[in-house]
Amino acid sequence: MNNFTFFSPTCFEFGRDTESRTGALVKRFGGSKVLIHYGSGSVIRSGLMNRVQSSLQASGLDCVLLGGVQPNPRSGLVYEGIEICRREGVDFVLAIGGGSTIDSAKAIAAGVPHMGDFWEFFSGKAVIGKAIPVGVVLTLAAAGSEGSGVSVITREQDSLKRATYSDLIKPVFAIMNPALTCTLPPYQTACGAMDIMAHVMERYFTNTPDVELTDRLCEAVLTTIIEQVPRVLSHPDDYNARANIMWAGMLAHNDICGAGRDQDWASHKIEHELSALYDVAHGAGLAVIFPAWMKYVLEHNPMRFARFAVKVWGCDMDYMNPLRTAREGISRLEAFITSIGLPLNFAGIGAREADIEYMVRTSGVNENFKLGSYVSLGAADVAAIYRLAL
Ligand code: NZQ
Ligand code: ZN
């Protein structure tokens, strides 16, 4: 096992009606004037916004609102949010929504005290040194942004989708009421499930030996998703299944499953080019890319994939031919993706073969910058993975 630092400062308030605690939590973490950041209106239609505002008012907190976050959140709204916070003296950003809203809130929180352009954090020109606190009321189990230090933003003028990381933008609290996710359309539930699985698989496929505990944690999160997601797709109001999925989404990405091991992340970077160019849901892009990546790197360590097949998918181990077992695991993953209504190829997300060269270029991969750690991928490899996903 590798050395590691595990820092998880977020207070998780989990369960029914926990949004009524929003005001008390903002006060506990030092907020007095709050920017409420949200998306295209699902939180208003569901009545959640009213309940959160009542809670903030009951705690005597002042608020300004900024809605309009789009899936694959854009830089333009981040600039607007930074401007509003400075003008209004906001000292706390509250995200109500899924990963896109949380990521936009994090970028605003880091941008407010920064003298330069906030995009410098995403282009690698600056490191986040300060941020105002971010709190979350989560409505979608997917990105794990409620417990991560990551923000992913798309720059509008050139559709460049980039991530930044800092402990300083980890939310100070995350309110997680599984009942809030019952209104999700089935497609969003499925996309969320795929993202959760991908966050685990990026960590599971590692070259670090003797990480038995985190291997088993990864397998537990994956099997939980495989069992619980079909339950909520047939019974959207199944609170307990929603609760298991929501907590799995947090565990998948706050790095408790990744501590002490090398992590890959090539599939995420390859996918980000797809969601940037075609504005598809991140989870749908991952459904297309992850099996293709698996087929491409399979022979690097067939036993790793055979373990995945046996422990996660319940396949029988073929000791004479582990590669056969390994392939069976990938097939079961593909069958699961299809069964929850997600695409497996470019056609399913409207992507075009003709754009592969462009996506390889914008991914920035070259002789000196490769993707992944399980298998290090150059430009030709990334292009081959896109082709396998055709
Ligand atoms: O805009 P609203 O009205 O909120 O509607 C959203 C949106 O249309 C809707 N939705 C959310 N909760 C709902 C609901 N509809 C009905 N009922 C509810 N309870 O769902 C749609 C998708 O929302 P979005 O926030 O975009 O989804 P998700 O949570 O999957 O976030 C995706 C973004 O997160 C990034 C992705 O790249 C993508 O930009 N990621 C962020 C990560 C992080 N910060 O750690 C890691 C991930 O790997 C990922 O890259
Ligand atoms: Zn993801």
Structural features, described:
The chain has 390 residues and is an alpha/beta fold. It has 2 domains: 11-180, Rossmann fold, CATH 3.40.50.1970; 186-388, Dehydroquinate synthase-like - alpha domain (Dehydroquinate synthase-like, alpha domain). 49% of the residues lie in helices and 11% in strands. It contains 16 helices and 8 strands. The strands form 2 sheets. It has a 6-stranded parallel β-sheet, sandwiched between helices. Strands 6-7 form a two-stranded antiparallel sheet. Strand 6 (150-155) and strand 7 form a beta hairpin. Helix 1 packs across helix 3, helix 4 packs across helix 5 (99-111) and helix 10 (266-278) packs across helix 11 (282-297). The radius of gyration is 20 Å and the shape is globular. The model has no long low-confidence stretch (mean pLDDT 98). Zinc ion (ZN) binds next to helix 7.
Key attributes of the depicted protein:
390 residues, binds zinc ion, Rossmann fold, two-stranded antiparallel ribbon, alpha/beta, binds 5,6-dihydroxy-NADP, 2 domains
Number of strand segments: 8
Tell me, rounded to a whole number, the average pLDDT.
98
Termini separation: 37 Å
Q: Helix count?
A: 16
Oligomer: single chain
Low-confidence stretches: none
CATH superfamily of the largest domain: Dehydroquinate synthase-like - alpha domain
Associated small molecules: 5,6-dihydroxy-NADP, zinc ion
CATH-defined fold name of the largest domain: Dehydroquinate synthase-like, alpha domain
Instruction: Find the structural class using helix and strand composition.
Output: alpha/beta
